[in-house]
Amino acid sequence: MTPSPASRRRTRAILRIHFHPAERTDDLYGQLLTVVDGISSRVEPLPADWSAYVDLTGALSYWGRDTEGLVAVLRLRLLALHGVRCSAGAGPTRSIAAMAADATQPGAATVVRDDPYEIAAFLRTKPASALPGIGPKTARTLARYGINTVGDIADTRLTTLQRILGAAAARQAHDRACGLDERPVVPGVAPKSLSAGYRFDHDELDPERHHSTVLGLAEEVGGRLRASGEIAQALTLTVAYADRTQTTRTRTLTEATAHSPALAATTRKLLTGLGLQRARVRTLTLRAERLLPAEEAVHQLTLDSRDDKLHRLEAALDKAATRYRPGIAGAAAAFYRAGEDDRRSGRTASRGPRTVGYQSW
Q1: Which residues contact 202 (CB under 8 A, 6 or more apart)?
Q2: Which of 21, 95, 219, 234 is 20 to 30 A from 113, alpha carbon to alpha carbon?
Q3: Where does the record place the UmuC domain (predicted)?
């Protein structure tokens, strides 16, 4: 793969860093970003998967270190100040940094230097699906034409790729396969979000426990959104497993809302889509993303009187939570129905005690 002149315009050092805390909270994510900002002010938060892009280009000369040294300093600070391990990937472009980070285990870092031969050695042997923008479906399409690796994409004539993928997608894939990606890191604050999580006291394999817990989280998130006068445009469900790996899925809501039944329905789809079955789950976290003021809500007209009743019931439950405590009542589906084995072993409901239960969302 011969580098084009475009790849030599300027030397950049882009970092993609993933945080791996034992428990995820909004406050902790903000604190981690503050540590990163202490190294470089050019930080692009990605709260959905607890990661961020960082442009280290200017910071290298300021700190008098190379990319490997500066990434090591950042990882050490995160561990020392907050006890959080991270996986980091760095390279001359966003796509190379992302690929390097994806290939790196927690507690380690992969750095691809801005050298055409090192870039080629890193990219060419990777499967096509590892290239940002190439999903499983596109990778299968390419495989039917014998294009299986990133190197194959780079070696394929652009006109051929355009016939397979279309003009824009082909140009993007070909450029990134050749190590070209001029997208900048866009500094900014993390999009406003709100999250709730639950950590099991053992590796939980029971799908019913998974189901009741995430519905309880949807109720909690909905209540907190209504209390703060906000609505969510998307939900993200993160599952942490016994081996400390994680899976994250995000779904955009049909309409921005803080209505618990709508949040619960989307949360249920996220959980079902993960196909956990007998997975050994340790932590479940639900995050409401891209929050807006509640007055911006647009509610579709409906002839279903049940929806109006649920809104009135929801208002009554919010009053009960304010007067007594959060979680005093909730949907029946959010209650775990303990079986005989659970009662013998003393296992309790995952979402804590409630006094009132009513029909499931």
Answers
A1: none
A2: 21
A3: 31-135
pLDDT at 207 over 50: yes
Per CATH, the number for 5-177 is 3.30.70.270
Of 47, 39, 42, the C-alpha closest to 21 is 47
Single-letter amino acid, residue 338: A
Do the beta carbons of residue 333 and residue 181 sit within 8 Å?
A: no
**Phi/psi at 288 (nearest 5 deg)?**
-90, 125
Confidence band for 256, pLDDT divided at 50, 70 and 90 = confident
pTM above 0.70, yes or no: no
Residues contacting residue 263 through CB under 8 Å, at least 6 positions apart: 218, 221, 222, 232, 235, 253, 257, 288
CATH of the domain spanning 194-358: 3.30.1490.100
What tokens were used for 124? 């060419």
- Among residues 126, 129, 128, 33, which one has the least CA distance to residue 77? 33
Residue 195 β-bridge partners: 287
Q: Tokens 């008098």 label which residue?
A: 64
Distance (Å, whole) CA 78 – CA 35: 7
Query: What are the residue ranges spanned by the domains of the chain?
Result: 5-177, 194-358
